[in-house]
Design brief:
With about 120 residues, the chain is α+β, with helices and mostly antiparallel strands. It contains 1 helix and 5 strands. It has a 5-stranded mixed barrel with strand order 1-2-3-5-4. The longest helix is centred in the N-terminal third of the chain and has 29 residues. Bound molecules: copper (II) ion.
Length: about 120
């Protein structure tokens, strides 16, 4: 058993420099590509949904909404947590209230940008 592990470790050690060289080659190939045609950074998709406010955690700047389906994200209706972008928006989010929100995805978070 010990011998097998040692051999595998050796194989990985040998394989790695090769992989690095391959990755380097790929990067070199990309230099010829036109990288300037990407959409501008910060052009995020804004999603919209109607929801009922279930819970407000003003301290954490988070709310729990029972929202309607969100077609742009392929979401069914569900109850989930959202981050709130500005504390001023928390004034519009009171438990039990029916609202219409606009939000964007930021990493793993969904951040509410506007409340109506
Ligand atoms: Cu959801």
């Amino acid at each position: 058993m010990k011998r097998i592990i040692t051999t595998t470790g050796l194989a990985i050690a040998i394989a790695l420099p090769g992989a690095a060289a391959l990755a380097q080659k790929k990067m070199d190939d990309m230099k010829g590509m036109d990288m300037g045609k990407k959409p501008a950074a910060g052009a995020q998709a804004v999603h919209k949904t109607k929801a009922i406010v279930k819970k407000v955690d003003a301290k954490a700047g988070r709310v729990t909404l029972a929202h309607e389906p969100v077609a742009s994200l392929n979401w069914p209706s569900m109850t989930m947590g959202f981050k709130v972008k500005e504390s001023a928006l928390l004034n519009k989010l009171t438990e039990g209230k029916r609202v219409e929100v606009e939000f964007v995805q930021e990493g793993k978070d969904y951040v509410i940008q506007s409340v109506q």
